[in-house]
């Protein structure tokens, strides 16, 4: 497990990206880096937009799953919204949903705030992204 405290500043996003990239490389999971770096950026950006307090990002590998969790002190819960072509922001949770296998949130127990989490399965049968098309010969 890697826990990274992040100051509520613009540098938090680049630090989160760097931490995810370095951690995945150390775990031998570079193949997940693009998606997980993007999602971590979105989660930390959302936390920065909704709170001025401390933020913590946690990366964990459990069995066949890799998780990113971001905690902040805002009591506002994440609500996905439908974006329109004219929106200049508000696509963060749509990206989180599109680029992770699962996501959600939970309140921080007796402390103010919440954890927003997302996960990626390491099992090839559980991924929602199709990596290889089925050859035509095998499909018929």
Account of the 3D structure:
The chain is globular, with a radius of gyration of 16 Å. The longest helix has 18 residues. The protein is an alpha+beta fold and 140 residues long. A hairpin with a 2-residue loop joins strand 2 and strand 3. The C terminus is likely disordered. Helix 1 runs antiparallel to helix 2 and helix 2 runs antiparallel to helix 3. The protein has one domain: Heat Shock Protein 90. Helices cover 34% and strands 25% of the residues. A five-stranded antiparallel beta sheet has the order 1-2-3-5-4, with helices on one face.
Summary tags:
single chain, 140 residues, alpha+beta, Heat Shock Protein 90, five-stranded antiparallel β-sheet, 4 helices, disordered C terminus, ATP-binding protein, HATPase_C_sf
Compile the SSE list and pairings.
Layout: E1 2-6, H1 11-27, H2 33-50, E2 55-62, E3 65-72, H3 92-99, E4 102-107, E5 114-121, H4 136-139
